[in-house]
Design brief:
7-stranded mixed β-sheet; 7 strands; globular
Length: about 200
């Protein structure tokens, strides 16, 4: 699958504004500072595709990108950012939950976490929402270039231990190390996306 040809499709505030619910799509979710936009831009070799910002929490819409007809990547609003008003946070939560639980074309969720601070409360909430929807989740432990290999592997093993408790056969949950800066783990991410989008 050629991720270099990905192009912006539409921004939606609600599930109703999203593209027709057919084909296959994979959503990217994560805390506002987890490096979600950078990961999408690294994957697509397009630095300007997903907007990166020095101010976390800029992605407030559900952004859809088309890989090829009926195959999409979706950039979900960043969550858990403290400076967002409570009412807006609650609205994002509703939209996220509705999208994750009711979108039938959703084939999987890429959940991004800073490798130095994985499995925060909101991350656990996302895993729980996905579990209720029986949705496969692949965790990207981002910013791996900030750690030496030993601590990075320890972080991965800790996350995998929790995933094994939730999903003993690793049928729905998986994790890997990733760095947008060094492109660490990019082939593994491409392989996972291709398998989810090629049913």
């Amino acid at each position: 699958m050629n991720f270099n040809t990905v192009k912006f499709l539409i921004s939606a505030q609600t599930l109703q504004q999203c593209p027709a619910d057919n084909g296959y799509e994979v959503a990217f979710a994560g805390r506002s500072n987890a490096g979600k936009s950078s990961a999408i831009n690294t994957l697509t070799r397009n630095k300007g595709l997903a907007r990166t910002s020095k101010t976390p929490g800029r992605t407030q819409l559900i952004n859809h990108f088309e890989i090829e007809p009926d195959k999409r990547l979706v950039d979900l609003p960043g969550y858990g950012y403290a400076k967002v008003p409570k009412a807006l946070k609650a609205k994002w939560d509703r939209n996220l939950a509705e999208y994750l639980q009711n979108r039938s074309s959703l084939s999987g969720l890429i959940l991004l976490m800073d490798i130095r601070h994985p499995l925060q409360d909101y991350d656990q909430q996302m895993l729980n929402w996905a579990a209720q929807a029986r949705l496969p989740v692949h965790i990207l432990l981002t910013k791996a270039d900030k750690l030496k290999r030993g601590p990075a592997m320890n972080s991965l093993l800790g996350v995998e231990k929790l995933l094994r408790d939730m999903d003993p056969g690793f049928t729905l949950l998986s994790a890997q190390i990733f760095s947008s800066l060094k492109k660490t783990g990019l082939p593994e991410l491409e392989e996972k996306l291709t398998s989810w989008l090629s049913h």
